[in-house]
Amino acid sequence: MKILHVSVSPRGEDSNAWWLSQQIIGRLHGSVTVRDLHASPVPHIDADYADALGSPVEPGHAAAARGSLALSEQLISEVEAADCLVIGTPMHNYTVPSSLKAWIDHVVRVRRTFAITPDGKVGLLRDRPVYVAIVSGGGFSGPQAQQPDFLTPYLKVALATIGLHDLRFFTMERLAAGPQVIAAERERVATALMQPDFF
Ligand SMILES: Cc1cc2nc3c(=O)[nH]c(=O)nc-3n(C[C@H](O)[C@H](O)[C@H](O)COP(=O)(O)O)c2cc1C
């Protein structure tokens, strides 16, 4: 099985998002390609890309071979080559970090990963599991939530746009409370992931 690990935290392999992703990847048993959005940041989209997406026709070869359009093709190819995705991300200001948003802007692309039809947008990619590992300083789920959550609903809509509907969320919340909470959350997750029917 081919796994695409999209790593989002600026803290890289020291991050809780990385740790949680590794727990999931360990259960999936596959070969891993890492797209590290901190070590190799995806730039904001350029003018050729914005022009191409706003135009009713596909860009010419020259524009398609450079800048954001070329990077978009590479990032989409990585998704297409994967049997599943693991996205490890912190919550930043109630939603996805801007580095993950930049990746989404390159991957969610009209006429390439989704089509516009009279009935709305239709995804063009084959559906596959997307394991989303979210970590946060405060709580954002359940009755004890301390803040709104624009991360999980946004990711559901953005990825469904391109045909990825099978999202499975894993969270570690309230990590700003300190090392004891982090240790307890890691133990909870490790135990839960060991259950035979967890996936
Ligand atoms: C710019 C920034 C914004 C943040 N915004 C939120 C937020 O809205 N809600 C929250 O619960 N935590 C927020 N946090 C805290 C991180 O989600 C938290 O520290 C997380 O555990 C970091 O994960 P990591 O160890 O994977 O880097 C924010 C952190 C940063 C740096």
Task: Describe it.
The chain has 199 residues and is of the alpha/beta class. The chain has one domain: Flavodoxin domain (Rossmann fold), CATH 3.40.50. Helix content is 39%, strand content 20%. The protein has seven helices and seven strands. The chain has helices spanning 16-28, 47-54, 61-64, 67-81, 98-107, 151-161, 179-194, and strands spanning 2-7, 31-36, 84-90, 114-117, 120-123, 130-135, 167-172. The chain has a five-stranded parallel beta sheet, sandwiched between helices. Strands 4-5 form a two-stranded antiparallel sheet. The relative contact order is 0.16. The model has no long low-confidence stretch (mean pLDDT 95). The structure holds flavin mononucleotide. Residues 9, 11, 15-17, 90-94, 135-138, 147, 175-176 line the site of flavin mononucleotide.
CATH-derived topology: Rossmann fold
CATH class: Alpha Beta
Proper CATH architecture? 3-Layer(aba) Sandwich
Beta-strand share of residues: 15-25%
Stretches where pLDDT is under 50 for at least 5 consecutive residues are none
The helix fraction, in percent, is 25-40%
Shape: globular
CATH superfamily: Flavodoxin domain
Sheet with the most strands, sense and barrel status:
5 strands, parallel
Cα distance, first to last residue? 15 Å
Structural class: alpha/beta
- Order of the strands making up the biggest sheet: 2-1-3-6-7
Number of domains: 1
The total beta strand count reads 7
